[in-house]
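Quick board copy: two proteins, each given as sequence then tokens.
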Amino acid sequence: MTNKYSSTYPAKERASFENFISVNTNQIAKSTAIEFALSVTPYNVLGISSTIGNGATHLALSILNEIEKQNHKKEIFYSSYNELVMNNQSENELTIFNNEFLENKSLILIDSFYETSNKEFINKFFEVLKNVKAKIIFTYTEGIKISLVQKEIHLFSPSRIEKEKIIINIQSAEKINLSSEIINYISYQNNISVREIEGLILTISAREKLGKFRADIEFVKNIYHKMKNYN
């Protein structure tokens, strides 16, 4: 049976260590991730935790892309945890519950792990994974504890300087130019995540590309407040 979970994540192509911004708050986390991707480590199960939207999946996919580049002949297994839980287990007996199948991967990435009431599933899955020697990554929100994880790195909310660099990178990719007033406004928001920054700039970009108008600070403030109220 082929690995039905090996479809491309939408963010996979954009994920790399080069565009994972870590000027100060997440330098150690990034260094640990690079070491895990490039070296033989004394552990094979890495956990990446963060508050929602602050880069755990991006960093995990950066590791995935680096390992895939080094060993393109060996398949990588990756899936959201929800997809594993919700799919028919009997159909996947040769994949997620098969030690030999998983052992032949160069990396196993389980994204967005969460506590589930389906204890039978999680116990069975963990029983298989604990005997797998391939590199394994879990991503999850802070506060989650996974017994299999041997090394954990935590991503903090970006600093103002990191937010500025993130904004500049995204606007460059989108080929738009934001005013310094807009960049300063976004970067000074204390409770804005990387995902929210990206969503805000993509909204601005879409409006401008439709030829409606050039975004000004009032428009950005309005969109930001609507976004926070919705969340």
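And the next:
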Amino acid sequence: MLIKQDSIQLSEIFTSIEGEGVFVGTKTLFVRMAGCHLKCRWCDTGYALSMLSGSRYSVAYVKQLIAERIEPFTYKVNFTGGEPLIQYEAVIELAKFVRGRGLRTYLESSCYDSTKFAKLIPYIDICKVEFKMSDSNVVDANHYADLLQNEIMCLRISVNLRKISYIKVVVTKSTSFDEFDDLVNNIFRKIYPSDIIGFVIQPSSGFDEPSIDELVRCYDTVCPYYPEVRIIPQSHKQIGAR
């Protein structure tokens, strides 16, 4: 489905409490874009995967929606999905608008396309780079190396532009520890620990959940490279937030 540059396929827009990552607990306006081709097997926003989900609006109208929904003391505006990079040109316009209102812009992305990412990231203040393990089943084995290369490149672009950057990896009971070790080693061959503000290990929730021992093993893998590693589950589900 082709989305024109002056329109947006929007799944939803709402204010809630950030439930993931290093900014957990902050009041956030979520702008959820429709469409994601990766379809992680643990995805909890399946309703936003189709490019036909949500509604199509003009960029101008979505700016109006954002302006109407910004509440006092909102910490950031989170562009999420779906996958925001699919509609990166529209997100650029929204991010510029949000910055003009004096608010922080935050990008949640699988970082599957470093070319699109490089065009969007100048307008983003905070970037969460999510690395997909192969047990996510987002791509087949023949394309996984390409996905990983794009994720690494996006991380380096974000760091080089001095964005507030952090890493998230979802871990399940099926996650390969050898693969996780290789990923962590690969990441810290490309960046310095001081380049990022966090490394989050997120256990899958309600689907193939890892044990505490498995999470601790992943923690112990990251800690020699990045001592401030954290295991942070999805807290919004615990408090009944969206």
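Board note added afterward: Residues 141-160 form the longest helix (20 residues).
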